[in-house]
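Lecture notes, structural biology module. Today: joint structure prediction for complexes of two components.
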Amino acid sequence: METKVNAGTNTDDGAAKASMKTNKTIYVGGMTCSACEKLVAKAVESIGGKIHSVDAKKGMAVVDYPEDSHGKLKEAIAAAGYDLLDSEGRVPKADPFEQEIRVFVHRLLSGDKALWAERKLLAMSAMSLILIAFIGFFAYLFVLRGLPDFGPRFPYLAYAMLSSVAVVASIAHYRAFKGQFTCMEGMMVGMTIGMVAGFLFGGIIGATNGMFVGSIFGMAVGIATGAYCGKCCGIMGVMEGMMAGLMSGTMGAMLTVMLQADNLALFMPILTGVCFAILAGLTYMIHMSAGKREDGKMMGLMDFAALSLVLAVLTAMLMFFGPRGPITV
Amino acid sequence: MHCPSCEKVLQMDIGEIAGVKKVKANFKTGEVEIEGDGFDLSAVKKAITQNGYKA
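The predicted structure, tokenised, for the full assembly:
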């Protein structure tokens, strides 16, 4: 069924005629009936194009449209609920992933409004990190300097500070949009945060306090954060978060204790880097799923800083004054 | 009417008739609700039949 559509109404664009693509066949996906044909025709006309014929069965249309408005044509057809396909009638390929990431970073730096949550997180992370480092410096001046084993433990204190801020940033991002996730996304969020938190803190305390204390602490941090962040999608998410925390807390401690006999000093920055990269990926995922909304409730700087400070201090106290196993740095 | 596109087409065309304030077409029930006053019922019928539907 081919409908000839009369489009003699657009006569006021004579100037644009010189640069028109004429009698061009386009492929449109998703049309089922004559009503669809009319909507597609309206979409083409809305961008100053002209429609010669449109056929829902074949999924094709013959149109004229301004040379430089292929993007607009695509948008108009998408707005009507259909897809503009490529010149052979296939679904066009999505942008490559690297490009997607580049666009995201560019938008983050250029002040795109949709990325308000991510920018706020970055700012709060930076400020909290400065605060924690400041407090850490005073702790060094008055207490830590006198401890005999401060030297070899210093890097682990630094990892603990960084990890506290990174984990709290992820929790804050989750909290801002927690009501908006689908079940699948919520489980992913709970599992990722729980697993990364368990790995980082289990690994750090495993290195400085041995396997027993490291496992317990890693599990505690991992399970608590995992369960809290999985809570958005009910018992399934909570269970998933707890499992992730259990596994990663014990695994992290085990790993760093076993690596004492090997190259632990090099492994720690790699582990921390990988964990942070995963959290960055999660941030991107949250942004793409629910994080574009403007009604998310981000926690304030005070709460953010206090939470990361508590986590960092707790870890530091355990590291320097807690019980120790037989194999530690 | 058999799909959401049919709803849209009818809503657009009936919405253009003078006096019509709000149109809501439902392809599942086959009903079109029209709000407004002083509009021409025959124009509505014409808009429907013109698009290939029955009033």
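Point to remember: DSSP finds two helices and two strands in chain B.
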